[in-house]
Specification:
14 strands, D-Maltodextrin-Binding Protein, domain 2, 2 domains, alpha/beta
């Protein structure tokens, strides 16, 4: 995910972003220096065109280019702010193709035939990367993407509200426990609807995929077969329905005016979401900024995972790139070396405390403190907590080619359940039929 700098950009700018970075050639004194791990060939020379989405992603990568040029002085980077929607038609047309570009992981499958096979370049780095991130960018055994961010899921909550009502967050071990705690809160505070339930179709899909991934499930399996009509997805639908039936689910769209008000006014105090919920806490909340904390997700089953992936993005080199070797040098430095990771994620002029909404895919960076504990979470060590979750993310994670179209089907049918028109079973059966008929033909 990607988020506007605080002070705020518009919500329109935020909703157009889905990848994050931070950059500066100058490193703070407290951040230890370790030599870059990338292979450096200082003889490389030429021009490359790099596309990144406008907003903070573009700003932080742009600010990191001087650090790259300190090592590769003869590579000139023409950095352009371009919406990701332009990438696919450009690749198909084969005209004015960039040397590298940002793209959401969910869209990789749609363009993979136009991407360079970078397996040989990536292989030396694979062991240093989160495994599922490499796999979602691999097609027919060929690696075609450089992983960018990891977005571990967690439960954001208001300890002040819980403590004043005698509830210990450590007692919330399962999703049933979460409903039970919410019921107790509502019994004592009739205006509360403690659990956030999202209403935006595209974000419903992303949230459901997170809750499914936590159960080691995806919309499709490794063979591309639809798995929607299965126990993990029924568990999710039953959880949503139960929360609403008990009167403890607050229906609102992430970062909407109603959602912000519900957080600030203490109407909702449980927010199971990815790390990038901290964007809302930091940039949008007023009365409750600093009062939120993060803990592990409740479990679906005993011994089950307490985190998952929600979102993610990568960088790609088109097969039609004019200077692919130079583009690889750029991305290898930025995403596959400690020096580059510091420039892309650590403290800088745009994010003085470092990025607080994602963590890198490059695991050697987890030994460093790239993120100053954010004031938005009362000084909690979010970076240490988030990086500790990564190895627990279930790896059975697949993006169908039609992921981006699920909002119109699954998202819409979940909305109908929220309105009382469909049962959990109906949501899954109707959505499965529509997916097979309209998306899988």
């Amino acid at each position: 995910m990607s988020f506007p700098r605080n002070p705020r950009l518009s919500r329109r700018d935020f909703m157009r972003m889905l990848g994050v970075g931070a950059a500066s050639a100058a490193l703070p004194a407290w951040l230890p220096r370790v030599a870059a791990q990338a292979t450096v060939n200082t003889d490389l020379a030429g021009d490359i065109v790099i596309w990144d989405r406008a907003g903070d992603l573009f700003q932080v990568i742009d600010a990191a280019i001087p650090a790259f040029n300190a090592i590769y002085p003869n590579i000139r980077v023409d950095h352009q702010a371009v919406e990701t929607s332009r990438l696919a038609p450009t690749l198909v047309a084969g005209v004015n193709v960039p040397d590298g570009a940002f793209i959401e992981d969910e869209s990789l499958g749609l363009i993979q035939q136009h991407l360079l096979n970078i397996t040989d370049w990536m292989t030396p780095h694979v062991d240093n990367l989160v495994a599922y991130k490499v796999r979602v960018g691999t097609f027919d055994g060929q690696i075609k993407a450089i992983p960018y961010d990891v977005d571990p899921a967690m439960l954001f909550y208001r300890p002040d509200i819980l403590e004043s009502n005698g509830i210990d967050v450590a007692s919330i071990a399962t999703y049933d426990d979460l409903i039970g705690a919410a019921v107790n809160l509502k019994t004592a505070n009739s205006n509360m609807k403690p659990i956030h339930i999202d209403t935006t179709p595209a974000l419903i899909v992303l949230w459901v995929s997170m809750l499914a991934n936590q159960q080691n499930a995806s919309f499709i399996n490794a063979n591309g077969e639809l798995t929607l009509e299965s126990e993990p997805f029924l568990n999710i639908m039953n959880f949503i329905k139960n929360a609403l039936d008990q009167g403890v689910g607050n229906l609102s769209g992430f970062a909407s005016t109603d959602d912000i008000a519900a957080c600030d006014q203490g109407i909702q105090c449980f927010y199971p979401w990815a790390i990038w919920f901290n964007y809302q806490i930091d940039a949008l909340l007023k009365d409750s900024r600093g009062l939120w904390r993060a803990t592990s997700l409740p479990r679906w089953t005993e011994g089950g995972a307490q985190t998952a992936s929600m979102g993610g993005s990568s960088f790609v080199i088109p097969s039609g790139a004019a200077n692919p070797e130079l583009s690889w040098a750029f991305y290898e430095y930025m995403m596959l070396s400690l020096d580059g990771i510091r420039a892309a994620f650590g403290p800088n002029d745009i994010y003085p405390g470092g990025i607080t909404t994602i963590i890198p895919t490059y695991k050697p960076a987890y030994a460093e403190q790239l993120m100053v504990p954010p004031e938005s979470l009362g000084g909690q060590d979010l970076y240490g907590f988030a990086t500790s979750l990564v190895d627990q993310i279930p790896q059975d994670y697949y993006f169908p080619l039609w992921f981006g179209q699920l909002g119109d089907i699954l998202g819409a049918n979940v909305q109908r359940m929220q309105a009382g028109e469909l049962s959990p079973e109906d949501v899954l059966s109707i959505s499965a039929e529509e997916i097979r008929s309209n998306l899988m033909r």
